[in-house]
Amino acid sequence: MRRLTILLAGLLALTACGGGAAEQAAPPPAASTASSAAAGQEFNETDVMFLHMAVPHHRAGLEIVRLAEERDVRPDVKTLASAIKVTQLSEVDSMTQWLADWGQPEAAGDSPELHAGHGGDHSTSPESIAELAATPPAEFEKAFLNLLIGHQHNAVEIAKLEREGGLNPQAKELANRIFDSRTAQIAQLLGYLG
C-alpha cells in the first residue's frame, strides 16, 4: 500500500510538472510547416518531437511488458501485457516510417535541453526496468503493475503535447488513440492493484 501511495503521489507530481507551467511557458511551435517530399504530408516541430519522444518511450514499454511474459503473473495481467506489446510494436513501425517519410532522423539525441520546453523527459529509465527485472517472484506482479502505470501515464503526457500542438493528421490521430488507450489501461492496471 505504501508503494501505491508513493506511486500515486509521483503521478500527481508528474502531472503537475508536465501539464502546468511548462505548457504555459512554452507556446506551441509556430504553425509553419515543412513538406515531406516522399509523402507530401505536412508536419511541424511538435509532430517530430512527439515521435522522437514516443518511439523510445514505446521501446521501453516493450521491455517492460516482455518481462511479464517471462514471469509468473495473473493471466489477465499477462493478456494485457501481450496486447500492449502488439499495439506498441505496430505504433513504433508507423512512427519510424513517418519520420523516414518526413526526412527526419529516428532519434533526437539525449541532451536534457531537448526536453526543457515540454515538461522534461517522460521516459522510464533503464535502471527502473533493470530493477523490475531483478524483483523477486513474490513481489514481481505488484512492481510490474506500479512501473507500467507510471510508464503509461507518461505516454498520456507525451500524447497531450501532440494533441495540443501537432499539425500532422496521422500523428494527431495516433496521439488521440494513445491518450484514450493508455488512460483506459491505467484504470485497468489500478484495478489489478486494488
From TrEMBL:
Region Disordered: start-end pairs: 104-127
InterPro entries (UniProt xref): DUF305_CopM-like, Ferritin-like
Biased composition range(s): Basic and acidic residues: 112-121
Domain of life: Bacteria
Domain DUF305: 47-190
Keyword Signal recorded: yes
Keyword annotations from UniProtKB, A to Z: Signal
Signal peptide segment: 1-21
A Pfam match: DUF305
Name of the protein: DUF305 domain-containing protein
Biological source species: Saccharothrix xinjiangensis
